[in-house]
Amino acid sequence: MIGGFEMKSIGVVRKIDELGRIVLPIELRRTLEIEIGDALEIFTESDTINLKKYQPGCVFCGDVNNVQIIKGKRICLGCRAELR
Q: Looking at the structure, do residues 34 and 73 belong to the same domain, yes or no?
């Protein structure tokens, strides 16, 4: 269990190429809605590497839901209301 979430094997093993790259299977990318050009965050915990689709959040609270860009900054609706 990592970060409160149970890890699940999808039964796929990939080798790292000479440039340190791996290929994420298309089934996994479709399931997680990862498209070509999407950014992934990389986390480590002990001997585990975790990838997460990068979703920049609100500059104040970090929330990734209902975020709008205002003057180049990402601000969620809740923080926007507080600023008024």
A: no
